[in-house]
Amino acid sequence: QVQLVESGGGLVQAGGSLRLSCAASGRTISSSAVGWFRQARGKEREFVANIRWGISRTTIADFVKGRFTISRDTAKNTVYLQMNSLEPEDTAVYYCALSTTLSSPSHLLQVTSYSFWGQGTQVTVSS
Fold it and tell me: Averaged over 3-30, what is the pLDDT?
């Protein structure tokens, strides 16, 4: 089994920054990718970013490109989401997720490609 624990969320003013962390434990050695998704109230969960474990390749959603970056610390089994220039529209619960399947880059944009999920961390951006 795999456990994912997010942290780093909070309340920030527009234009500010936050760094989210996703600490993974358990049988993570077989993971293919770790992703960040977010879900705003009343909306569907949407892809934000992912990092493919074996090749360290990243994908960032267009609507946060240039503001958000994803990185990892292999020794700590932790993935980070650095969020800069935050906007009120970024307000949501942010979830990290782990995929253990060898999926194509397009499939790794989908919620259904991830088998393990964290509990989520709230990010609120005030205007």
Answer: 92
